Amino acid sequence: MNKLFSKRRSQHFMLLLRYWRLVFNDHFVIALFFLFGALAYGYSQWLPTLGPHQWWTRLVLIGWFTIIAQIGRLATLIKRPDPVFLLPQVEGIHRYLNQATWYSLILAEIMTVVGAFIALPFALTTEKLTNFEIVAIFLVAIVNKADWIHVARKSLSLRWGNQQWRTRLEYWVNPLLASIAMWIVNPYVGLVVALILYLAVVVYYRDLAVNWRIAVKTEQDRMYSVYRFFNLFTDVPSVQGNTKRRKWADGLVRWLSKGDQPWSYLYARAFVRGTEVSGIVSRLTLLGMVIVFLLPAGWLNTAIVILFIYLIATQLMPLYDQYEANVFTHIYPIPANQQQTDFKQLLAKVTALEAILIALASIGWRLNVGQMMVNLVIAIVEVFVLIRFYFNVRVKKLMK
């Protein structure tokens, strides 16, 4: 069973690595770099504005340490045929699940410690903490996560597996009680409460015989959520999309298309209905709006606006040859240059829309109208340059 888990863990890593390479492409890495940089900068600028011992700060800390306990799930790597082939391995499956629990716990604790580090500057700004109290805070976060993982482990058992309401309640109540004791009383009391709750869970939930039906379904649900995340960036065979009528998109298609031009209608439908190009464009637009909203006014804010408009514009270019493999598009009685004209029209409308949204978001949380107007003018000029020069060059290259 030890070899089985090690083999599945290696296969799981290889699968994740294959998708991570597709997710973290050059454009997404650049976007994440600026996003985290903007968040860190905004966080550092916000902390000096806080005063000590405000009534709401402890509520924020309680909520934060309760939420970070929910990050990281139990990964058993159990597959659908296991109930048939592993059913006789009663003792072996317990060793297998112990390895899965430790594997999940280590990864989850790393994320929990990172979450505690993020909250530490906020806590030090609003509370007077000694070095020993800081250590106690990290220990509370670690114990809360260990408690959460053990509760997840007991939810796969025959005795407790059908009481999912109880499991969901313990997921939130146990870390909430420890967090309340930590920030309302002091970190030492919080650590004692967290340890008592963890020991109570370990002692009370014993002899956890596996409920195979629940174990298989839980792991399938976990992997499906992972696949859905990857499917935001690339096609995942395990995630099958559903075809359904989208009436809300009719107006958008009419706005993007032009009259009775077939190529204009095809490109508008392909952009709205397709998830590959439109998904990337919408996510990058939203990400750019968040970044410029958090960044303070200045040259960096304007540079981010210019950068994101260019990045999003480049993501639209693969849409041009989407119908090249369709033989019927080559027999349309339409001039060849009409395809280029209709495609550039779509590019102009989409790029102008996302540029306006990003420029408007640059007003920031301080409502700097002057910065927004400057960015709006620069965005309009950039869109004109992209449409007039950049798109013409790229379309000509695609035609070769």
TrEMBL record:
The keyword Transmembrane helix appears for this protein: yes
Transmembrane segments: 20-43, 55-75, 102-124, 172-205, 286-313, 373-391
Keyword annotations of the record: Membrane, Transmembrane, Transmembrane helix
Cellular component terms (Gene Ontology): membrane
Protein species of origin: Limosilactobacillus rudii
Pfam families per the UniProt record, alphabetical: EcsB
Identification of the protein by name: ABC transporter permease
